[in-house]
Structure formats: C-alpha cells, structure tokens
Amino acid sequence: MRRIIIPGRNCWTVEEASDAGVLVDARAYYRELYRAARKARRYIAITGWQFDSDVALLRGDDLGEALGEVRLLPMLDELCRANPELHVYVLAWDFSLLLALEREWMQHLIFNWTTNERVRFRFDASSPLYGAHHQKLVVIDGQVAFTGGMDVCDCRWDDRDHPVGSPLRCDSGRDPHGPYHDVQSVLTGPVVDKLAELFEARWAHSGGGELKLPKVARDDVSFTASLPAPPGPVALSRTFGKTLLPPQEAVQEVRALYLDAIASAERFIYIENQYFSSRAIYQALVKRLREPGRGRLQVMLVLPQQPEALREQLAMGVAQVRLLRSLERVAREHGHDFGVYCSAGRDAVSGADVYTYIHSKVMVVDDRFLTLGSANTTNRSLGLDSELNLSWEAEAPGDAVARAIRRIRVSLMAEHAGLAGVEPVRVLARADGDLVSWLNGLASAGQDRLRRHPMQTVFDQSPLLKSLEPEELIIDPEDSVLDESLFEALHRAEDGLFASGIRLLSRWLVGTGTERPHRAICPTNAEDGRSSG
C-alpha cells in the first residue's frame, strides 16, 4: 500500500494528538469554542478569513449552559476583565473592497477600542496580491486547538438536521439564513505546539511583532466531539503564496497532498467542498481515471447546488461545471463511476427544495486517508491563499485509523442524504462496492435529502445569459483549465485599500494615528524564561 503522507513533500510536519475530534456544523464548533474559551487562563489566539463581533456561540437549548456573555467579542472582553492574566489575539484577513457590504465595518475600532486593553485585533494584509488569508485556527493556552473550514461570523450557524427554516439561524439583525454545512476539528497534545507556532509566525508576518505564546499546565482540558477523529499522529499541510515584503517563499503542501492522495486511490474518492475548479485536481483525477491496469474507481463529490454569490457564479461556476461534465465523460468512457450531489430539504408549504450550502473541505480516499481543513478544491486555495489542512492515514486496512475514517465518511454522507436511524445508515455503510449507483438511486427517489447536482451554470438558467457565455472556455482535459484571474480580481483590491481606509478612519475618529498602547504582547512566563514582547 503506497504511503500518501510524506513530510517535506505534502505536509509541514506530522505530530501526535493526545485526543482529537471532528465537529460537524457550527452548532457543535461554536459550543465547544465557548466551553474552551471560558476555561482559558493565559491566552486565546484566533485567526480567520472573517469575524463578526456579535455572533452568538450558544443558541436555543445550548443557552442553558451559558455562564455570561455568549456573543464572541463581549465574551472575550468579559473573560479578560475577569482574568487579568488573560490575553486575546485576533488576526483577520485585510479584506477586499468587493466584500465590504458583507463585512462588519470598523472592526479595528470595535475590537481594539471598545474592549479590555488585552484584547488585540489586527488586520493581516501580508497575503500576495489578489490572495487571501483563509486559514481558520484557534489555539488556547497551548493545550487545545480548533481548525477546519469554519470562521466565527454571520450566516454560518446550523445544526446537523439542517431544517428548512430555523429562527436560530439569525445573526446581527439579519433575516434567518439558509441551511449551512461545515466541518472543524479539535485537538489536544503535542500537535497544538506546532499550531501555536504557526499562529506566532502569522502574527509576526502581519507586522504585529514577535509573539511568544506560553504553554500552560492544565488538567481540565476536555471536549465533546460530533465524531472521534482517527487516533495517533496527524499531518499538518499548508498553502502560502509567495510574497516579497515580507519575504516568504511559496508553500504548496496541500496541493501535493491532494494529488498524491488521488493518485493512490484504488476503490473510491469522496470529496465535499465549497467549490471545484482546481486545474491540478481535475488533471489528477483524469490521469487516475485513464490509468491502465487500475481497478474501477468510484468518485463522489458533494457541492453546493450553486455558488453562494453571483460574482462566484460568474467567476467560478463556469469552470466548475465544465470540469465536472468533463470528468463525468472521462469516467464513463473508462468504466468508472462518477457522481456529483447536493443536499436539500423540502419546504412543507411550497414543496420547493431548500438547499444546504456546503462550505466544508473534506476528502476521503479508500477509507484509509482523510484530510479536512480550510482549503477549497480551487486553484487559489492550492497556490495563492493561506490554507491549513489536517490529515490522517491508516497503516493497514481495517485498523483503528481506518475504522475512524470510515465512521466519519459514512456519518457525513448520511447527513447529506438525510438518513436517520441505525438501519438506514447501516445500509449506506454496506454499499461500499457500489456507492455511486446506490447514491444515484437514493437521489432519484427524491424521498430523502440527497439530490443529483444539476451541473448548470448561471448561463444555462437564462436564454439571454446563454447567448453571452464565452465559447473559448471549453476545456481540453489534458491542458490547463479556466484561469482564476477574474475571481482573484473580484476578491482582492490592491493593498487592501478599503480595509486600510476604514482602519485609518477609525483611528481618526478616536483622535490618534497609532494603535492603542498596550502593556505587553503576552504575559511574562517565568517558568519557561519567555518574556513579554
């Protein structure tokens, strides 16, 4: 059995996890983040693509365990006021002009000037031109870490049932948003040290100065996961685009990880992701499907019914649909099975399907390899943006790691299919040899949540738009596919001008041109010789 995870090639490091779990959907993640933050003693370090200050971490029945504020920033402020040794660091991508109406304005002011002085917030503009900081990471006291696909922001919260309508899916005075699916991980043990090191480097790279996060001796670290993660070592893989100032070489470990995993597949590949537009992943799949002498392969993708915003439909949707159609054709021509699905609930009043938005980033190969994290299956996530994925690999078929990966994969597929109860899930688990046909039958019946993906672009949905669809984007399976320059241009204004302008305005409003004075970057740690920065 060919090994997939190779340090130095497709991962940064392989570290031991004392305990690890998978948190499925934001109710589980936000609840565990709340519990871990309430126990923090020395620091909480958070980095992400987006934050909203007043996102409620506990909702509905979970409010019964509230011990004070449940909204993100008021909770962090409350914790710092109650514990004079606690420091909070929040690092957010310095977003582009096009996203301005989707973001909370004046965050530099809100986070830094309306809270305790030990709550420190920075915008990170160190990404390459047209790139984004997309890693999602929380580290607390060097003891517990969370990473995956989820940010703590508006319009993300949902439960695994994904009801058609829910008053709990409501943020910041908005109308309730639709069903939303994502996956996060929680870890303890030595692997947390490397994740803390990653945050320290990101903070320094952003211009925040040297940061030394102390490791706190604690015996009260615990969590409740949706599913247990595979036991033992876990690999950390990253993406960073090359920058000149500050200097940083490109890192494409996640790209190599995906390509190596696809090449090794013998029975099936399962992917759930927000997008599918990566040239490299498409070509790797085509190569594997065409490879002579290999057995029948089943490829299954779970994607959103369509990209969330019109700009994404225009910039990403055309490439995605054409790649999927091409892969479907190649699989058919070479005797493989290929299925693309989405998930929906039926509105009891209108009878219309209400689709769950898939935001997770998960791939399983042969139930012996699992990766999850922040990286989308897009060109930019594999080469330009900052990304972070975790991976596990079994030593032998059917060992403890393989069994854990299988449980995670079956549980996720059952959620998308809307299968409840032991027996329906058992039937799904037993369908391994003919998964695509079984899923196709389930989707065609239309009685549960699984649907065949329409594989249509925004141009297909309107005769007027169809006439405007560019003809030159037809894909040759052996060549490069649609470049993402349009997507990048739409998502990044040079030097983060809008966010920088808002930051300057907030400084002017409080009558200063510099950041608020602070006592220390982190508390002195006499035991390990680390001092405040």
Q: Which key phrases capture this entry?
A:
eleven-stranded mixed β-sheet; eight-stranded mixed β-sheet; single chain; 30% helix; disordered C terminus; 533 residues; alpha+beta
Would you summarize the structure shown here?
With 533 residues, the protein is an alpha+beta fold.
Walk me through this protein's architecture.
By secondary structure, the chain is of the alpha+beta class. 30% of the residues lie in helices and 20% in strands. It is built from 14 helices and 21 strands. It has helices at residues 26-38, 72-82, 107-113, 191-205, 253-264, 279-290, 310-333, 379-383, 400-417, 422-430, 435-445, 463-466, 485-491, 497-509; strands at residues 13-17, 19-24, 43-48, 87-93, 119-124, 137-140, 144-148, 180-181, 183-188, 227-228, 232-240, 251-252, 268-272, 298-302, 337-346, 353-355, 357-358, 362-365, 369-373, 387-393, 450-452. The strands form three sheets. Strands 1, 11, 12, 13, 14, 15, 16, 18, 19, 20 and 21 form an eleven-stranded mixed sheet that branches. α7 (310-333) links the parallel β14 and β15 (337-346). The longest helix has 24 residues, at 310-333. The termini are far apart. Residues 470-533 have low confidence and may be disordered. It catalyses: a 1,2-diacyl-sn-glycero-3-phosphocholine + H2O = a 1,2-diacyl-sn-glycero-3-phosphate + choline + H(+). Residues 129-156, 354-381 form the PLD phosphodiesterase domain. This is Phospholipase. Keywords: Hydrolase, Lipid metabolism, Repeat.
